[in-house]
Design the sequence.
């Protein structure tokens, strides 16, 4: 069939074009400079709070305001009570700390067993920081931890049961 009649094409020509620039691409510095060179009009708008955190810049939130008011009220009460002739003792709740006898007993029993704080902590399934706090006297006594220490060290750390 070659050579019979003129050659015809069944397809329509297809033109492939780039996508139109997005809004972000139109604001790109390169695009703006190209538009300036082409002589196009360019409009610049200054936003007042662009990029700012609205929650932070809107002033104090409700929770922050409540906290500030409570703090202010407490400080006023404190100053009032402090300036009165009838001075009341402030009742500040302090948690009990590890007594000196207990921290020395823990340290002595650990040394007798030739254990490091980390090894003892591993034996009783606690963090090494817990043992360190108990031996420094900074920890708030926990009876469960003390009983774990007693079992691991094989020593009585508390008074008579």
Sequence:
């Amino acid at each position: 069939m070659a050579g019979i009649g003129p050659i015809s094409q069944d397809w329509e020509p297809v033109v492939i074009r780039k996508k139109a620039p997005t809004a972000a691409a139109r604001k790109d510095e390169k695009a703006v400079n190209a538009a300036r060179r082409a002589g196009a009009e360019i409009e610049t708008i200054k936003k007042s709070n662009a990029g700012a955190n609205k929650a932070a810049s809107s002033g104090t939130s409700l929770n922050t305001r409540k906290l500030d008011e409570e703090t202010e009220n407490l400080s006023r009460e404190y100053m009032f009570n402090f300036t009165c002739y009838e001075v009341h003792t402030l009742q500040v709740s302090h948690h009990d700390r590890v007594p000196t006898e207990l921290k020395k007993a823990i340290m002595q029993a650990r040394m007798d067993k030739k254990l490091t704080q980390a090894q003892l902590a591993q034996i009783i399934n606690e963090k090494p920081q817990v043992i360190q706090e108990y031996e420094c006297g900074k920890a708030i006594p926990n009876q469960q931890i003390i009983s774990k220490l007693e079992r691991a060290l094989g020593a009585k750390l508390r008074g008579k049961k």
Observations:
- Residues 100-153 form a domain with the 434 Repressor (Amino-terminal Domain) fold (CATH 1.10.260.40).
- DSSP finds eight helices and no strands in the chain.
- The first helix runs from residue 23 to 26.
- Residues 35 and 42 are 8 Å apart (CA to CA).
